[in-house]
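can u do me a favor
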């Protein structure tokens, strides 16, 4: 993926290219993170409900939200793919991010998905009951990076 910038009197032309299918460009600006203050207590309550068969398998608790003031997400359909944007500056300087700028699509090819919006919640973290044959169920909060978990509360406390 490459980004080329050309500044011309308060307008910025951005070209983003992808060399393969399903490549992603993600940019968020003015982000605010909100989270449950006492996720340990919530986890203990979920484990208690689970132990009494009152918590449905597969249900999760949203423990953290990231709300973005602006976002740009681009996903290529196949390679090569490209999108060219004309970004207008509202002042004497170029915008600091594509997400927070006013953008118009000038050219697009082989893109599967594009979004350029404001006031969205693109990211979140969840807690859920993790069951195993070898240990008691526990409440885990999934990290952003993959399926591994860090334990907060087990049925034993």
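np, heres the sequence
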């Amino acid at each position: 993926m490459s980004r080329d910038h050309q500044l011309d009197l308060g307008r910025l032309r951005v070209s983003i290219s992808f060399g393969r299918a399903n490549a992603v460009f993600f940019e968020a600006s003015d982000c605010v993170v909100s989270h449950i203050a006492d996720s340990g207590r919530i986890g203990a309550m979920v484990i208690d409900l689970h132990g009494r068969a009152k918590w449905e398998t597969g249900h999760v608790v949203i423990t953290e939200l990231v709300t973005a003031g602006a976002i740009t997400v681009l996903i290529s359909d196949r390679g090569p793919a490209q999108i060219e944007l004309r970004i207008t500056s509202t002042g004497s300087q170029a915008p600091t991010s594509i997400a927070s700028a006013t953008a118009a699509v000038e050219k697009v090819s082989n893109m599967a998905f594009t979004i350029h919006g404001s006031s969205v919640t693109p990211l979140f973290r969840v807690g859920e009951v993790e069951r195993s044959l070898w240990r008691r169920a526990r409440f885990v909060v999934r990290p952003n990076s993959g399926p591994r978990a860090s334990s907060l509360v087990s049925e034993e406390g």
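Strands lie at 2-8, 11-18, 24-35, 60-76, 81-88, 102-109, 111-130, 138-141, 150-154. hope that helps!!
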